[in-house]
Structures are given as C-alpha cells and as structure tokens.
User: What shape does this take?
Amino acid sequence: MCVFAAIGSFFMLHNTRAAIEALILGFLLSPYGIPMIGAVIIAFIQGINEAIKSI
Assistant: This one.
C-alpha cells in the first residue's frame, strides 16, 4: 500500500520527499524491515565482541 502511495506521489505530484518517506515507512512496516534492522545491529555487536576477545 505504501509503495503505491510512493509511486503516486512521485509521478503524479512530483514530490520526491513524500515518495521516499512512503518507501521507508513501507519497509519498516513490512515483516522484513524491523527484524532485519535488529539482526544487523546484533551482528555488528557480535563483531565488536569477537574483536575485543581476540585482543
């Protein structure tokens, strides 16, 4: 739904800011968005932990 709003606001209204906001909102509301951000943060913290352990 947010993707269609983004496409409509970009092509019909020529408003790129609203289109980008709609795409970001659509990504965050999807089942892939927020869990994937959490997984990236956890992987980053684990990488720091391994680097500290190797010292």
